[in-house]
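in:
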């Protein structure tokens, strides 16, 4: 009997990861490509089709799940995603269906990652949690009473666009002061450029031609004082924001996922400390900060695959 396989696609501002897995989460293939190397979404779909065709697994596919910034499960489209090179409304589900000839489901990338974490990862024991994706931008997947919250229009979970500083940093969404301009990989780099500190001129960061968030965290671990300040600033902004968000859905846990989260317990502990400093007293010491267990397995790809199994079951 032929194994049924789903194609999961995670579209990020920097890379597009995609893979094939079965209902148990067994991975058959994974790959990634730079997002900006494709002038149009049609070219991306063609590339993924070509890669899967070369794997000889097209006939085993039963569906496609896609996680993308501003992905809308109701319409199957990406709607005006600020961190993607393709602008406007993109009918992504229709593009995949036309090329592959099978059903495609599109949702927000953080929603897909939350589903993956709930089924395969560090949220198996949770019915109320929020997954925070810390990549090029910042997204959130909200699970309440075991169900993902989509909202009336499919756009629930845009936590990266909560404004945390009035008239603060400009954001790709067109507004100012959004959380993701401070707490994301790009936000960390902006902090390295914009924060003032007596330690800045003597920091190893000042000698780099270009700075990445990974550079900042690695130097902080090695004792670079300015890098430590940036990491602390980032954790404070996220912890304070999570303290406020707790008043909305009272989750049992926040799960950190993505590049910044891969710095593990030390960063998560800092976030927890700042969250507790700012949180309403009725929530004090009740909420965990967890780190995704699926970095190596790619929770977003697994979550995107699980959209297919949820549709079929």
């Amino acid at each position: 009997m032929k194994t049924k396989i789903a194609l999961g696609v995670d579209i990020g501002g920097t890379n597009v990861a995609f893979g094939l897995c079965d209902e148990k989460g067994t991975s058959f293939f994974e790959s990634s490509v730079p997002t900006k190397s494709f002038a149009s979404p049609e070219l991306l779909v063609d590339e993924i089709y070509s890669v899967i065709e070369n794997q000889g697994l097209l006939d085993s596919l039963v569906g496609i799940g896609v996680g993308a910034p501003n992905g809308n499960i109701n319409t199957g489209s990406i709607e005006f995603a600020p961190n993607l090179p393709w602008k406007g409304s993109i009918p992504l589900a229709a593009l995949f269906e036309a090329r592959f000839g099978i059903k495609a489901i599109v949702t927000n990338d953080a929603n897909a990652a939350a589903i993956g974490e709930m089924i395969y990862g560090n949220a198996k024991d949770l019915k109320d949690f929020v997954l925070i994706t810390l990549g090029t931008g910042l997204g959130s997947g909200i699970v309440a009473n075991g169900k993902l919250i989509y909202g009336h229009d499919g756009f629930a979970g845009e936590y990266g666009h909560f404004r945390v500083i009035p008239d603060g940093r400009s954001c790709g969404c067109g507004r100012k002061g959004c959380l993701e301009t401070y707490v994301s990989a790009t936000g960390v780099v902006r902090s390295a450029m914009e924060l003032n500190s007596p330690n800045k001129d003597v920091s190893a960061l000042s000698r780099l031609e270009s700075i990445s968030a990974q550079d900042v965290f690695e130097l902080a671990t090695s004792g670079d004082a300015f890098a430590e300040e940036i990491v602390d600033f980032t954790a404070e902004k996220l912890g304070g924001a999570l303290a406020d968000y707790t008043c909305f859905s009272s989750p049992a846990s926040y799960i950190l996922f993505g590049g910044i989260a891969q710095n593990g317990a030390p960063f998560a502990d800092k976030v927890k400390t700042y969250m507790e400093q700012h949180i309403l007293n009725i929530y004090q010491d009740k909420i965990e900060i967890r780190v995704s267990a699926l970095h190596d397995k790619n929770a977003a790809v697994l979550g995107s695959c699980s959209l297919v199994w949820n549709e079929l079951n």
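note: The chain has a mean pLDDT of 92.
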